[in-house]
Amino acid sequence: MDARVQFALDLAIAAGNTTLQYFRTNQYQVERKRDKSPVTQADKSAEETVRKLIADRFPADAILGEEFGTVAGNSQYEWIIDPIDGTKSFISGVPLYSTLVGMTMNGEPTVGVIAIPALGEVIVAAKGLGAWYGAIPPNSFQSTGSTNINSFNLEMTRAHVSRQSKLEDGLLLTSQSDNFAHRNATTAYHALESLAYITRTWGDGYGYLLVATGRAEVMVDPIVNPWDVAAVAPVIMEAGGRFSTWDGQYDIRKSHCLGSNGLVHDQVISHLKEFA
After folding, report:
1. Which of 60, 223, 226, 246 would you call most buried, defined as having the most Cβ atoms within 10 angstroms of its Cβ?
2. Contact partners, residue 42, CB within 8 Å, separation at least 6
3. DSSP 105
4. In degrees rounded to 5, what are phi and psi of residue 13?
5. Per-residue pLDDT tens for 143-187?
6. CA distances for 40 relative to 55, 89, 133, angstroms
7. Closest of 69, 112, 130, 142 to residue 252, by C-alpha
8. For 2-31, how does the pLDDT look when each residue is reduced to its tens digit (9 = 90+)?
9. Global pTM?
10. Chain centroid to CA 37: how far?
């Protein structure tokens, strides 16, 4: 396995260990950022852990993270990280939050890891190498304190999106339905909800993992930042799906996105593109 792909997995495990030290405990307080979104010491500590590991291993690489911004680099690589994607779930004790580790090369998303520490699920993808899914016993993240995924003798299997061709027979996911109102796209959400066989808000990174492993057909987000999607894009694409903005572009710097099995993508975009 390419050294940087393995390292991305190691980073996700390290961050997952850190989050589980705080999950469902009273060892942190919830603060509010300028945009009113929540942040905790778990978010900050996990990102600090990842930043230190990157700086030690690849000091020339750039880093962009949700909590501490940008560190410039002088290589062709940038690590884009979200230590806890789904902080609202985390602070509510819901185990569907994720740790996202993405790497770009010359600005192009190349490596992505989505880890769900509290459920023990992880998926990794690299351009040209496919997407691979594995399950780690949830208590193994915390009990060993390991930062190396090889410590778990993880068996990974090739991940692939579903082959369901109609949203009417599929599962539609989003992180928070009322976020569509921020893009004046509430009518689009209701139209998609009416079309889909089932709709759930099993969102954030977990929703994209479900798409990449064939358990959901599409995940739609009205509001995203680069750290929300840099890891997601290669995972969806390498699992055989399609990732784009609401108007069909492949751009992780835009503020809206969807990831799908590819077969329902155009059907969903037809309801979203006017709100892009």
Report:
1. 246
2. 18, 19, 21, 22, 23, 28, 83, 84, 90
3. E
4. -65, -45
5. 444 444 444 557 899 999 999 999 999 999 999 999 999 999 999
6. 23, 12, 28
7. 112
8. 889 999 999 999 999 999 999 999 999 999
9. 0.94
10. 17
